[in-house]
Amino acid sequence: MARASVIDDYVADLDARLPGGRKVKTDLLTEARDSLEDAAECYRRAGFAEHDAQRKAVEDFGPVAVIARDYQGELAVAYGARTLRSILFVLPATHMLWEGARLIWLGGWENAPGGNPPPQWYMPFAQISDSMTWAVSIATALALLIARLWSRRTADNRLIARCAAGVAMVAASAALSANVALGVASMFVNPALMFHTPVLLLASVFAVLVLARLTVMARKAVRFAV
């Protein structure tokens, strides 16, 4: 019981201090437990009693607050990188899905319901939405590359995590804002445009939901990196 109590209490305390992705967190906690068990076994072989062996192992491992800070840096970097990869691959795929639905079910903008092309001021919204997708994709790709190179030169994972989370938050928010702005402009110019076909409406709703999910992930990345 003593063995389970000392090591389990330490790991449970460490667990409570670490917000982050489940898989990486589980791996880190398993690694910590294995290290503690190995150290305690060495002390038992040296003649220490069970409780003392575990206590010595925990003392050697380090204060839980210090270990939690180091582990949190790793968790934050892993989640930030995961968020950037999600933006990099999911955002262009969602955009191409929407564009495909528009081209198939609507065609060119001159084919808008009502027979009138959108006014001149409307087209910049569409162009910004299109350009934002690729600008965000390029930014996230560069952020991933820089973070990988940076990690080889510094041991400060938390700084890398903050930068990755910041890029993810700006990128996801910008993409979501551009998409919502285009939708609002479309409703203002021609409400029938959004409801021209069920497929186009579903593609639009799906795109907003995906972008909202990416923004939520980016917010979590920021929170984990604090």
Automatic annotation (TrEMBL):
InterPro entries, alphabetized: Perm_prefix_1
Domain of life, source organism: Bacteria
Keyword terms, alphabetized: Membrane, Transmembrane, Transmembrane helix
Transmembrane segments: 132-151, 163-189, 195-216
Designated name of the protein: DUF2637 domain-containing protein
Organism: Kibdelosporangium persicum
